[in-house]
């Protein structure tokens, strides 16, 4: 079982330069502690995402770390020209010496798409074109493409990724029908859904993988994303989680509220309700171990992206949580 960190890089209340520096230091610590990977979300026009250019942010991280895998979760592909994005990906993979993990997706917030003039009705087909063109570009050589949204006449792809044939794909998945494409592309997948719901998607991925004639031991990561806070006592963990979550949850829906649009997710406004739903855990190392084991067994998951730095969580509390997770939680579950 593998453990990575998922991060919105959301507003923390710190001045922006200090906010970035604190994040960089925490991910340096995560590398020292042995976390497998770090993934940052892409958002625009909202305090939920203060790294709207994942490439810039990850380039800085690539120079501050040496081993931890790094990637966007995900590049919102509908907001890029695919050839420009392909060149950035090649640069990042080279700068990190082959540590880039390539998360791509349509992006789930159509209000953010509209900020860039991308209409909600066209985003699905625009993403399909962008995805196919991007993967063709990463394969190298001269690229030509004529679609409804993108036209590329004989683009010489001079840059190439460090990893061959390209960096590993990551895909946030909700619909089981998407598992066919993800399995065909050998993509790592991550679900935000409750374990019993995620199970259908992860099982579908395994079925597609087997149908393609591939060995079970070669499966990519089939993961869950969960908020996780660890402390020496349950009371301390809950206090940290509750205080930090308030700011994060406010950032989560603020763009919808500012636009007067109904928030589309039935997502609790307080930590205790979220924990009651099974989508997060704050507790001692033993409690967190038990929770993750139950979640992995219920969903058939082989790893987790743990959302451990969010909202107004002080850096000292985040570091304590990361350290306890790495030293007392992960080793007990590594062979699960």
Q: How does the helix and strand content classify structurally?
A: alpha/beta
Q: Uncertain runs with pLDDT below 50, 5 residues or more? A: none
Task: Write the H/E string, N to C.
Answer: EHEHEEHEHHEEEHEHEHHEHEH
Task: State Rg.
Answer: 19 Å
Q: In angstroms, what separates the terminal alpha carbons?
A: 6 Å
Mean pLDDT: 97
Strand content: 15-25%
Question: What is the number of strand segments?
Answer: 12
Shape: globular
Query: Count of helical segments?
Result: 11
The biggest beta sheet is recorded as: 10 strands, parallel
Helix content bin:
40-55%
Describe this structure in words.
With 336 residues, the protein is of the alpha/beta class. 46% of the residues lie in helices and 18% in strands. The chain is built from 11 helices and 12 strands. It has helices at 16-33, 54-64, 82-95, 110-115, 123-138, 179-184, 195-211, 234-259, 271-276, 285-299, 315-333, and strands at 2-7, 37-40, 69-72, 75-76, 102-105, 141-146, 151-157, 169-172, 188-191, 222-230, 280-283, 303-307. The strands form 2 sheets. Strands 1, 2, 3, 4, 5, 8, 9, 10, 11 and 12 form a 10-stranded parallel sheet that branches. Strand 9, helix 7 and strand 10 form a beta-alpha-beta unit. Helix 2 (54-64) runs parallel beside helix 3, helix 3 crosses helix 5 (123-138) and helix 10 (285-299) packs across helix 11 (315-333). It is globular. The protein starts with a strand and ends with a helix. The model has no long low-confidence stretch (mean pLDDT 97).
């Amino acid at each position: 079982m593998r453990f990575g960190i998922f991060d919105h890089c959301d507003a923390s209340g710190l001045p922006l330069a200090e906010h970035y520096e604190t994040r960089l230091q925490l991910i340096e610590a995560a590398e020292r502690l042995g976390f497998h990977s770090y993934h940052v979300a892409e958002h625009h026009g909202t305090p939920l995402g203060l790294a709207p250019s994942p490439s810039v942010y990850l380039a800085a991280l690539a120079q501050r770390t040496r081993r931890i895998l790094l990637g966007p979760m995900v590049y919102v592909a509908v907001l890029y020209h695919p050839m420009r994005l392909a060149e950035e990906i090649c640069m990042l993979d080279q700068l990190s010496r082959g540590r880039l993990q390539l998360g791509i997706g349509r992006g789930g917030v159509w209000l953010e798409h509209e900020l860039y003039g991308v209409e909600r009705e066209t985003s699905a087909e625009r993403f399909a074109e962008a995805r196919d063109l991007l993967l063709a570009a990463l394969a190298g050589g001269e690229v030509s493409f004529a679609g409804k949204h993108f036209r590329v006449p004989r683009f010489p792809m001079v840059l190439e990724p460090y990893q061959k044939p390209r960096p590993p794909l990551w895909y946030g998945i909700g619909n089981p029908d998407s598992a066919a494409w993800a399995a065909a592309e050998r993509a790592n997948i991550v679900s935000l859904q409750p374990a019993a719901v995620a199970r259908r998607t992860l099982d579908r991925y395994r079925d597609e993988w087997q149908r393609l004639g591939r060995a079970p031991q070669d499966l990519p990561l089939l993961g869950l994303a969960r908020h996780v806070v660890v402390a020496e006592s349950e009371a301390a963990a809950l206090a940290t989680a509750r205080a930090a979550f308030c700011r994060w949850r406010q950032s989560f829906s603020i763009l919808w509220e500012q636009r007067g649009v109904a928030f589309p997710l039935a997502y609790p406004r307080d930590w205790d309700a979220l924990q009651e739903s099974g989508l997060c855990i704050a507790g001692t190392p033993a409690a967190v171990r038990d929770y993750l084991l139950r979640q992995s067994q219920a969903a058939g998951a082989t790893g987790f992206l743990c959302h451990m730095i969010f909202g107004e969580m002080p850096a000292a509390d985040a570091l304590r949580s990361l350290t306890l997770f790495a030293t007392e939680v992960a080793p007990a579950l590594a062979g699960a």
